[in-house]
Amino acid sequence: MSQEYIKTVESFYQALACRDFASVLAMLDPGMEFYAAEKFIYAAGSPYIGPEAFRDGILARIESEWDGFAVLPEEILGAAEVVIARGRYRGKFRTTGIFIDAEFVHVFRFKEGRILALQSYTDTAQFRDAVDQVRSAAP
Fold this sequence. Notes:
Layout: H1 2-17, H2 21-26, E1 28-35, E2 48-49, H3 51-65, E3 66-79, E4 82-93, E5 99-111, E6 114-122, H4 124-137
Parallel strand pairs: 1-6
Antiparallel strand pairs: 1-2, 3-4, 4-5, 5-6
């Protein structure tokens, strides 16, 4: 079963790269839970429960705040109903112009062929530094 799930994760990243968010959401279980890395700039709503919460809390915010944001997997491994991907987040925070190149690890859990849970781990300091200049410049 893990090969099938690895292919789903590959399709997930391909859909993200094409900004085909309808396909991304179709891969998610209705009860899907997204867990942002601790201290991540979008962690306040974590866990995001359901595809719409993931779309609104993560995908829409990234689309509105980042230029050229990419999720680039470098390695994808699977066993049973768990798939782990390692790669890089890259993009420029629109307001500050600061570019990030942060490593990530994603842990996917599946239920009946769909993504049930996604835990993200990343270098949250790079994201914080990219947005903190905006916060510190605010009156």
